[in-house]
Design goal:
Elements: E1 10-12, E2 28-35, E3 44-45, H1 47-57, E4 66-70, H2 73-77, E5 89-90, H3 92-100, E6 105-108, H4 118-130, E7 133-136, E8 150-153, E9 164-166, E10 170-172
Parallel strand pairs: 2-4, 3-5, 4-6, 6-7
Antiparallel strand pairs: 1-7, 1-9, 2-8, 8-10
Helix pairs in contact: 3-4
């Protein structure tokens, strides 16, 4: 089970969709967790990094999946000066690659899906343009590495016109 500690995971919706308009099945999905914990702080996550993590996990991304990215960021940086800036992050290219796999959403431990600045701006635009969403501020992803496929639940609050929302993130494992 994925349980937030002192953090409040949040979901960010594509600009064209609003929290109160998205079907609940968008947030109750099959999921996988990719181990990117070897990525250095302040580094970019490339397509090759994602492909290597998929191969190592011996899983496949299926349409509408939730893809969780464990970067060991929370353990390394929570409560430290670099918490808002030092995380590994997706690039426009790697976010586009994920989106083209047909995912419904992805989640990260960091406060944003892309490195601060241009990368983060571009990753948000990729989500909007390709019609998928992302979650920020997840914890305990280390507990999902190597678990294969599982169910993910992360319902947003029904905020009228909202483009983001706190969620209660839960991983439902069969074993």
């Amino acid at each position: 089970m994925l349980e937030p500690t002192s953090m409040r995971p949040a979901i960010s919706m594509p600009e064209t969709a609003r929290a109160d308009e998205m079907p609940l099945e968008t947030f109750f999905t099959e999921a996988i967790c990719l181990d990117l914990s070897s990525k250095p702080l302040k580094s970019d996550i490339s397509i090759a990094d994602l492909q290597a993590a998929i191969a190592a996990a011996q899983v496949a991304i299926k349409p509408k999946d939730t893809v969780l990215l464990h970067m060991d960021f929370y353990r390394r940086c929570y409560g430290k000066d670099g918490y808002l800036t030092d995380f590994p992050g997706l690039t426009k290219e790697s976010a586009t690659w994920l989106g083209r796999q047909g995912i419904g959403m992805f989640g990260v431990e960091a406060v944003s899906p892309g490195r601060p600045g241009r990368n983060n701006f571009e990753v948000h635009h990729v989500c909007r343009d390709l019609g998928f969403t992302h979650m920020e501020g997840l914890v305990n992803l280390d507990k999902l590495v190597g678990k294969g496929r599982f169910r993910f639940i992360g319902f947003p609050l029904k905020i009228k016109g909202g483009t983001g929302s706190p969620i209660r993130a839960v991983a439902w494992l069969d074993d």
